[in-house]
Structures are given as C-alpha cells and as structure tokens.
Amino acid sequence: MTTSDLALVAALIFGWGVFSARLERADLTAPILFVAAGLLLTHGPLAPLGISPSPASVRALAEGTLVLVLFTDASRVDLQTLRADWKLYARLLGLGLPLTIGLGIVLALVLFPGMDIWLALLVGAALAPTDAALGARMIVNPKVPARLRRLINVESGLNDGIATQFVTIALAGAASAEHIATHGALTAVTELAVGLLIGVAVGATGGFLQRFTRGRGWAAAEFAGPAVLALAACAYASSVALHGNGFIAAFVGGLAFGATARPGGERIVPFVEDVGGLVSLLTWLAFGAVAAAPAFANLDWQIALYAVLSLTVVRMLPVAMALAGSGLGRTVAAFVGWFGPRGLASVVFGLLALETLDQSDARPAVTIIGITVMLSVVVHGASADPLAKRYGPRLAAATTTAAPAMQEMPVRQLAHRPAVGRRTSE
Fold this sequence. Notes:
Elements: H1 3-25, H2 30-43, H3 55-75, H4 79-84, H5 86-111, H6 117-126, H7 136-139, H8 146-175, H9 185-215, H10 224-241, H11 246-261, H12 269-297, H13 301-311, H14 313-323, H15 329-338, H16 344-356, H17 359-400
Helix pairs in contact: 2-12, 3-10, 3-11, 3-12, 3-16, 5-6, 5-8, 5-13, 5-14, 6-8, 6-17, 8-9, 8-11, 8-16, 9-10, 9-11, 10-11, 10-12, 12-17, 13-14, 13-17, 14-15, 15-17, 16-17
C-alpha cells in the first residue's frame, strides 16, 4: 500500500467515525459502506489509484479480526447467566448447525449439478456460521430481551470453530481424496478439544495474573489494553501451533479471561474492542476490493437463488427444528433464525479456499460464498433495527412465558460500541 492509498483509507475510516451515528440511523452500516468502498476503489472511478490487496493479505486480516472480536465479545459474557441457557445453545449448535450444513450441501448439489460433494460441503459449511455484528443494531436494542440477544451472540461465537472442521475436511477432499483420512472425525474432535483446553488455560491464566498484578499496583494502567490484545493473539496462536482450533481457543479464552479478571477486567476490554473495530473496517474494505467484482461477474440465477435460500430456508428451518419444544414459540424461533447473518467467518473460509485450491476449482464455491455474504451484509444490516423495534415487545412476552431458563434476570447493561466488529456482547 502506497502512502496515497493509506491516506485515502484513513480518510474513509475517519469519515465513518464522524458520521457513523447519522449513517446508522439510515440503516447504512459499516460493512455495507466499506464493502461498497472497496468495490469502488478497485473497479470504479478510483481504480486508477491502484489499490489491490492480495487474497492472502485479506485472509490474514480477516482471521485477525475474527480472533479479536471473538475474544472480546466472549469476555463480556457472564458465565452464570450463560449456564442458565445451556440447553438452548446445545440445541442450536448440536442440532441446528449440522442441519444447516446438511441442507446447504443438498441445495448446492441440486442447484449446481456439476459440483462435487466436497465443494458442496465447503459451501454448506462456510455459510453455516453466523455473524451477529451484521445485526448489531438489533443486538444493542433494549426492546429485544437481553437473554435472546445473548443467545444469538454466543451461538455466533461458537459455531465458527465447529464449522472450521467441516471446511477443513471439504478442502482436503477437494484437493486430494487421498488426504481425507488425515482430516477425519477424530482429528476434528481432537482439534476442538485442544482449542478448548488452550483457550481455558491461556484465558484463565491471563485473567488471574491481570487481576493479581492490578490489585498490587504492579501493572501500568496504560499498557493493560495492549496486554489483553496480546493475550487474545496468544490463545489463537498457541492453539494453532498445537494443531488445535484457534477460533474456539479465542472465544473460550475470552470467556475464561472475563470470568477470572473480574471485577475490573471490563475496563480493559474496550481497548481491544476498538482495535477489533478498526481492523473490521479494513477487512470489509479489503473484501469489497478482492471479492465483490469477481463474484458479481460470475453471478447467475442459481447463485442468486442459493444466496436467498441460504439466508432464509437453510438457516431458519434448522433453527425452528432445533428450538421446537423449547417453549419459546414460533416468533422467537423465526427471529433467531432470521438473525443468522453471514460475515467474517464465511469470508475467511472463502479466502482459504482460494489459497488451497486451484482457481478454477475454487471459483464457483467462492462466488456463492461471496454473493451470499454481500446479500447478508445488506439485508441483515438494513433490517436489524426495524425488526427489533417491531417485534421486540412480542419477543419479550414470548420469553417471559417460556421456560424459566429463558426468562429475564438482572444482567449487565449492553456495552454499546460502533457496529463495525463482528458482534456486540453483554
């Protein structure tokens, strides 16, 4: 990136910062605007400026962003209230997520008869994880019950790591059938377990040390934020180095840090959130620059139909089945099903496919992923606030009459931050 490129990108970020509240009131979210900006900078009147990030650099940026927002959002979750709804999380992750992947595979095979099973698995798995930040206006809306917002948020924090295993298997199968044995079910379970253990160890140790040294005045207040930033990176990198799931480690590490660093740990997290918000803007800008134009160039009616169905039937039907019998009712199930936007995790998986597979093999799957993400950026960003205002009172009534685990209890007020990160937590 040249100095002129840097100046232009910095000006875009500053412009968002000073006009963000006004733009969000018009349902123009950061992902919408920065994806559009990335497209215009590379394929519009500003293309002669020569901004052209590589897919590898975009992937690294997206992975770093995902790690930061997973860690910080998890660190704000109260484990006591989380335990109250564990059955709902188990329903969504244990039943809803596999059903979503399976339905996505079937739809891909039906709409794209020439696609092999491994690319269909790649598409289904890459578009299964959700990104609550694309509906951040709903996540911070007090009209929506706090515990329902938490349900959507925590689900989106955990499903990334689970979907990673399916994506890994799909990429191995698409690259070479002989390598499938090295990415089987046992390996996937092992990676999840390693990520879980590393996340707990790093997060809990870091939280304890931070609390211990802060209480004795050993830690400089101005460096506490960067220390937590390094801890998030440590959880991810340590897990990957030991062949574990780095995204699970980041999220679980944030949970463990938040539980052991309190009280007082919450004051440190905003620094990492701000950094995560900044790199999120850069990620969406780079995604628009790298993926938007190729995706639109290869767009046809099958891809458009897949994107629409992926955001509706493929997500909402499994969620309805997973929540059946929970006592929450159809309105809550439909609301949770709709707010399953596709975002940073899907971007990472698509870029990973571009690096792992031949361009000709990866392009159809990456096009489907890219179009679905861009559609999600627009429709979920634009619908978050209106739907929250319209259905918030009905959702509150439904959760009040539901099982006790879903009823309201005192929780910390949602920390409102700009809707540029992946999700906003309590």
